[in-house]
Amino acid sequence: MPTASRINLGALGKEPGFLLRLAQLQAYSIVLEGLDPDGLRPGAFSVLYLIAQNPGMRQGTLAKHLLIKRAQMTKLVQALAAQNLVARSVPAGDRRGVELALTPAGAALLAAHAPRFLAQGDAALPGLSAGETRTLKTLLAKTLGLQVAL
Questions:
Q1: Pick from 27, 56, 72, 84: most CB atoms within 10 A?
Q2: Tens-level pLDDT at each residue, the chain (150 residues)
Q3: pTM of the predicted structure, to 2 decimals
Q4: How far is 107 from 140, CA to CA, in rounded Å?
Q5: HSE (CB half, 13 Å, CA atoms) of 110?
Q6: Gap between the Cα atoms of 133 and 113, Å rounded
């Protein structure tokens, strides 16, 4: 009989996708504890942060890189625009695209939250040494085909 604190995962305990999903949920719960009542969620933070890093980025490109369905990205961007955090514009040369930029309010919100949000990253990996954390980040980036300097 499994106890409340331990269950037999069987073969699932060896499946990378399953373990990554549980680790993601655990990491997000730790990160969420550190955010203040502005209601900024990890997904919205990621979108704001990447728009700040890539002003003028197309909404579809952002969706592709974050592995978010276009319809979900549209809803998220609409919500951020309604909060006056993101400005959308249609480029003159291609009326099908939507380019994104932070508004001053979006930049201010990001500046207020980024240090705390980004500092939570290593805390979201409890039980790992600094070296193990670097190795995990390197392997995850490699798995995703990202060139990230750690």
A1: 27
A2: 444 578 888 998 888 888 888 888 887 777 666 665 567 787 888 899 999 999 999 999 999 999 999 999 999 999 999 999 999 998 887 777 889 999 999 999 999 888 888 877 777 777 888 888 888 888 888 888 887 776
A3: 0.80
A4: 28
A5: 22
A6: 23
